[in-house]
Design goal:
- The chain is of the alpha/beta class and about 500 residues long.
- The chain folds into two domains: about 5-25 and about 240-505, no CATH class; about 45-235, Rossmann fold (3-Layer(aba) Sandwich), CATH 3.40.50.
- The chain has 15 helices and 22 strands.
- The strands form six sheets. The protein has a nine-stranded mixed sheet, with helices on both faces. The protein has a five-stranded parallel sheet with strand order 10-15-16-17-18, covered by helices on one side.
- The longest helix is centred in the C-terminal third of the chain and has 21 residues, at about 350-370.
- The two termini are about 40 Å apart.
Length: about 500
């Protein structure tokens, strides 16, 4: 497989955000026999909408925004829907749909899971300027509202979105309950997790509340819409999500690592930047959430009960949100069956090293799944690279040999359970493979190509398109870029909250 088959730098400059979450979300198939949802209409009573980023022609659910909408619907006077917006959608149609939905009411619009999309940040500002209340939520809402570290003294850095949104809301979704009761600037200092600007333009940030599991037991899956030709239309989802872990266990501890200079700075190869990181260096979600631990079994079972059923009475496929799901998977399958809940498919996202440690549990789970008619898809394994230098720079905490060992074990399990387990790109999996990166050289590319051919990774492991390295300003690599800028008297261009490492740096 040639490098030209991956996304090149010219493509990144246009589509660097679009690929960011593609390894997590995929189409599983059409779900038959589901009842058609009615269109939301403007009606008496208070209303709210949440806008989220989405991919064209997909049918997966959005757990975070849909759970937030459920909380708002159940615990405030507001009805709330989620509107999934793709890059291709006509914003004029969206704005007209919002006007129809809110009627004479002042629009209250949340924005969550935006994937760094500048078009949605611009939309939020336009709606705010026209009188809507706009709220930034989701991962990194606080640092995206506040702006990049030190931007006041470095004009090229990202200045934040305090002009695009009336509020930022960082942390657990139920904090919005307090905000919706006090939108008139009365008692904002008492609202947990809230960010806002005072009359002098200074950003005020309130401490956030910790997670409360009682708000995580229910999610509506019929509250999501997409953009049609004439307005918003119901989106019938085919894959839902169930939250079992909050955050990533790998981000629970701080590790010291040294990251190489980028190849774009000539004459500095061999030099490194020392950093203390939580989780992978590129992962802004790990830096934001850390690891809060697992949810109790009853909370997880309650979420599973909320999933829609297909025509055969089984729950639609679910993605289990847990970076280390294997040790508890057999017990979960047994308990779900004991409760009389029929599953169709469980999608797993995990690390290669944790797969190796938990492979015996997966074997046990596959035996149970075989008896119950459940399909288990290893939907995304974070291999990320097949070069040790790049894995070190990504702070993955694993080696190429561990990646290859995991692949050998996966292939063996597929031979044992050919009809009960899937893992390949042909079966719908999209494994993590980050390319290009800031450290690619001819030597590294040659090593990766040799490994790909030697182990036949192009046949089942590699995705159709690699995911380019994305550096969010608040990720570990954001600190890396800023340290290089200070040392070398350089600056890299910012694209909203994303740092454009792929372009040659400018001299100060």
């Amino acid at each position: 497989m040639k490098n030209s088959e991956y996304l090149n730098l010219s493509i990144i400059s246009k589509f660097y955000i679009l690929c960011y979450f593609s390894s997590r979300l995929q189409l599983i198939g059409d779900i038959l026999g589901r009842k058609h949802k009615e269109m939301p209409e403007s009606r008496p009573g208070k209303q709210m909408a949440i806008i989220a980023s989405y991919f064209k022609d997909e049918t997966y659910g959005l757990l975070g925004p849909q759970m937030a909408a459920t909380i708002i619907q159940d615990h405030t006077p507001y009805a709330c829907i989620v509107i999934a917006v793709t890059r291709e959608d006509d914003k004029a149609i969206l704005k007209k749909a919002l006007a129809d939905y809110f009627g004479a009411q002042r629009p209250i619009i949340g924005f969550s899971a935006l994937s760094g999309r500048e078009d949605l940040f611009s939309l939020a500002k336009e709606l705010r300027d026209k009188g809507a209340v706009t709220i930034l939520a989701g991962p990194q809402a606080d640092v995206d509202f506040l702006g990049e570290q030190g931007w006041q003294n470095h004009p090229h850095r990202f200045k934040g979105f305090s002009e695009n949104f009336n509020f930022g809301l960082h942390g657990s979704a139920e904090q919005v309950i307090h905000l919706l009761n006090r939108l008139d600037r009365n008692g904002w200092t008492e609202i947990p997790g809230l960010l806002y600007t005072d009359r002098d333009g200074t950003v005020i940030q309130n401490p956030k509340k910790d997670w409360n599991e009682r708000y995580l037991r229910k999610v509506r899956w019929d509250n999501i819409y997409t953009i049609g030709k004439n307005g918003i239309v119901p989106l019938n989802i085919s894959t839902g999500q169930v939250l079992q872990h909050i955050g990533c266990p790998y981000a629970a501890r701080t590790s010291e690592t040294e990251i190489d200079y980028p190849v774009s700075i000539s004459g500095r190869q061999g030099q490194r930047i020392k950093l203390f990181l939580r989780g992978c260096s590129f992962c802004d979600v790990a830096a934001d959430k850390g690891f809060h631990g697992k949810l109790d079994l009853e909370t997880v079972i309650s979420q599973i009960r909320c999933l829609p059923e297909a025509h055969d009475g089984r729950k639609i496929p679910l993605e289990l949100i847990n970076e280390n799901p294997l040790p508890n998977l057999p017990d979960l399958l047994r308990e779900v069956n004991k409760r009389g809940i029929r599953l169709s498919q469980v999608n797993l996202t995990l690390r290669a090293d944790w797969f190796i440690l938990g492979v015996q549990y997966l074997g046990e789970a596959l035996q149970i799944a075989s008896e119950l008619g459940i399909y288990i898809l290893l939907s995304s394994i974070g291999f990320e690279s097949f070069d040790d230098a790049i894995l070190r720079n990504l702070n993955k905490g694993l080696s190429v040999e561990e990646n290859l060992h995991a692949i050998r074990l996966i292939r063996q399990l597929k031979e044992q359970f050919p009809h009960q387990m899937g893992y390949s790109s042909k079966e719908g999996s999209v494994h993590g493979f980050i390319h290009p990166t800031a450290w690619d050289t001819k030597e590294i590319s040659a090593r990766i190509q040799k490994t790909i051919y030697l182990y036949g990774l192009q046949n089942d492991i590699l995705p159709a398109h690699s995911t380019p390295l994305i550096i969010h300003h608040a990720s570990g690599l954001g600190d890396w870029i800023r340290e290089i800028e200070l040392r070398e008297g350089l600056w890299f261009k910012r694209y909203g909250s994303i740092i454009g490492w792929w372009e040659a740096p400018h001299h100060l």
